[in-house]
Amino acid sequence: MPDAERIPSELDQLVDRDPEETAEWAASLDAVTREAGPHRAAYLMRRTLEHAGRTGLALPPLVETEYVNTIPTAAEPDFPGDEEMERRITAWNRWNAAAMVTRASRLGVGGHIATYASAAWLYEVGFQHFFRGKESAEAPGSGDQLYLQGHASPGIYARAFLEGRLTEAQLDNFRQEAGGNGLPSYPHPRRLPWLWEFPTVSMGLGPLSAIYQARFNRYLAGRGIKDTSGSHVWAFLGDGEMDEPESTAALALAAREELDNLTFVVNCNLQRLDGPVRANFKVVQELEAQFRAAGWNVIKTLWGSAWDELFALDTTGALVRRLRQVPDAQFQTYAARDASYVREHFFGADPALAEMARLLTDAKIDECFGTSRGGHEPRKVYAAYRAALAHEGAPTVILAQTVKGHTLGRGFESKNANHQMKKLSVDEFRDMRDRLGLPIPDSAFDGGTVPYGHPGPDSPEVRYLAERRAALGGPAPARRTHPVPALPEPSERAFQALQKGSGKQEMATTMAFVRLVKELMRDRETGRRWVPIVPDEARTFGMESLFPSAGIYSPKGQTYEPVDRDQLMYYKEARDGQILNEGITEAGAMADFIAAATSYATHGEPMIPFYIFYSMFGWQRTGDQMWQLADQLGRGFVVGATAGRTTLTGEGLQHADGHSHLIAATNPASLNYDPAFAYEIAVIVRDGLRRMYGPEPEDVFYYLTVYNEPTVQPPMPEGVEEGILRGLYRFREGTPAAPDAPRIQLLASGTAIHWALDAQRLLADDWGVTADVWSATSWSELRRDALSCDAAQLKGEDRTPYVTRVLQGAPGPVLAVSDWMRAVPDQISPWVEQDWSSLGTDGFGLSDTREAARRHFGVDAESIAVAALDRLARRGEVKRQTVREAAERYGLA
């Protein structure tokens, strides 16, 4: 191949000691391929590598390349911008980021400086040349999706200040949100909804979500909802963050589905929060191997242009070998020490390197080892980004090496403690000013306060910045907060089927929910917007009927004949499939849900996701993502199926959920319901569609728990809709056996209402006690209403909690029961005026029949009846002996 046509190689930057010998090796390989075929040639290559490994030859494995830049300097494309202008813009942003955090540190609220200092050019090159805004012609209404590293947020605020999107007063409110005008510490859409799209702290959730966001973009396109081909997902990560399991959990998915609309940019400053990421190893090489093995395209941008002279002098390969040998912690030390130390400890390790060092000045060594990194040079960053966008068929990761704390001075750069260092002194700022070349006079520091810097709204820098963003489609990051059109209400028919009851047929509430959604997915107007999400247990939840009708999304369609093709409910995959069946990954399914639940903002396309899962594996396993969902203002239905601690027979402790409602109650955006009947589900889902997708949509999501216990579903009584939505209504009033019969109120949620109804009968028939049975659809909504009333009372308003008002005058004590631990119903006890007690399933779950498990926890009908008699005995309304007799009769004594 002529040199002009040959693809540049990273090896081009290494000196070839004998090009003729190299050519002979290549010719030999070509000859074998020609004479014996490519398989023989590949076999010989593998044998050679195997032999090299056995003999101790220092060759990296196939998943690694040398510790050099993937793109040689000679192969870098021309830089399209004004590099000097962009240097000045970046300098202003570096200054203001550091000034903002330092000024805030006076109040003790903290902040992070070193991360953005190392990554500034990684962001600035993107903002100036790559990141598309919402008005982009290539990606209208969507733009690119930017998952920005949380600890770098001061730099993003500084850029928004330079653009005029933030004021000095807002910068001075960094991390001071209580007054309502502050800037959140990290990317938080709920706190700053016009700027941030994606929350990226907790660490690890950003990369996981970025992968599923890129995948969801393809899903929208595949289903014909929106053309997202112009959108690209960028995830900016720290090398320390890659230790989080979620950071690498879905790498294979991204490669398998060829998500070339996704780029990871890993800022490899070799430091995490307390010290080196891989003190005795090399994190860049480790990450390269991990990503290459998963099928990603890997671009390493490690060394700045100052290193070109050193590589040119490396005629023996000693420099490349030494770079591969030196562990990260030692290289960090080189970056922080002077040239004499580097000469002795780096170059002195090899005679060839010692000879090379004699040709280098101290200034050159200081530059190379102290600051010259690929991530600090806009031309190298630009080349990497352009190569990433040009690569087809796989996602790309850019491993960009930087110095943590770059430009902040010797007191910060490469120091182990720099993540915890929150401020610079005035003298350090003066040094930084001189280093960055900013026109800030000494008088600006009078009084000891560090000033913000701005070249002026009409300055060449601000005009250049505005022109670049206009060319790319508007500001970024930016979140669209204007309302999307309300979705039309589905037809009555879908809800009426559940409201009529099931007649004599038994039906579990899990099946009732699935039937409702299946009917709603047929709706002509909104049906295509439903996104069913399930982590590989669709058949457990009775969803297999959706397979042939809705199809399972796959970018490749169905390239095989399914084994059950001759059956009615066969396994059908399709490019336009509606179901996201993620395999055994609740974290992946939850990331799917977040992408779909926020599509109304990300793409201007409201989608209605419902994610159904074993209730034990929701809030307990992916609770951090539930908070991420709330933070990102997601909307949709989260459904904990096979709920309760005694309802899922035989599965035992690990599957027995008796606490998810307690965890869910802590999340302010989650509306939590534990419906007992199919008609309650119909009312709740209908209300959810109105609240989340109606004319005035709310940034909430619904958590419903449904059960796998088939029972006859009654028709909906009249006038109960408000009680269902508020959390409590009287389902069945007891018939007094006598005018003076003792009376008690039984409050029950979910499947426990059936035990309460049986207890109602036992109390009446065996003991002459009248019990009213109430359906408590939401303990947490009752509590939130009560807390709101309490807060109003403190402001002088006269408001009575709903639970107090609806139970007012109800005779006798109140006994609450559920398939949850007692703390779940106990949430409302302060606002119940009657004597309060509760029963629940506290403790670990266990395997047994439902009857035995309920007897074990003391929540079956007989246990409820005895507990009710005990409550009445304490009030003197029945004899104490009656309690003992009942316990003996029911086998509880």
Automatic annotation (TrEMBL):
Gene (UniProt): aceE
Keyword DNA-binding recorded: no
Function: Component of the pyruvate dehydrogenase (PDH) complex, that catalyzes the overall conversion of pyruvate to acetyl-CoA and CO(2).
Swiss-Prot/TrEMBL keywords: Oxidoreductase, Pyruvate, Thiamine pyrophosphate
Reactions this protein catalyses: N(6)-[(R)-lipoyl]-L-lysyl-[protein] + pyruvate + H(+) = N(6)-[(R)-S(8)-acetyldihydrolipoyl]-L-lysyl-[protein] + CO2
Domain of life, source organism: Bacteria
Top class in the EC scheme: oxidoreductase
Location of the Transketolase-like C-terminal domain: 727-860
Residue ranges occupied by any Transketolase N-terminal domain in the UniProt entry: 144-301
Listed name of the protein: Pyruvate dehydrogenase E1 component
Recorded GO MF terms: pyruvate dehydrogenase (acetyl-transferring) activity
A Pfam family annotated for this UniProt entry: Transketolase_N
Annotated ranges, domain Pyruvate dehydrogenase E1 component middle: 488-710
Cofactor needs: thiamine diphosphate
UniProt cross-references to InterPro entries, sorted A to Z: PDC_E1_N (IPR035807), PDH/Transketolase (IPR051157), PDH_E1 (IPR004660), PDH_E1_M (IPR041621), THDP-binding (IPR029061), Transketo_C/PFOR_II (IPR009014), Transketolase-like_C_2 (IPR055152), Transketolase_N (IPR005474)
Enzyme Commission code(s) on record: 1.2.4.1
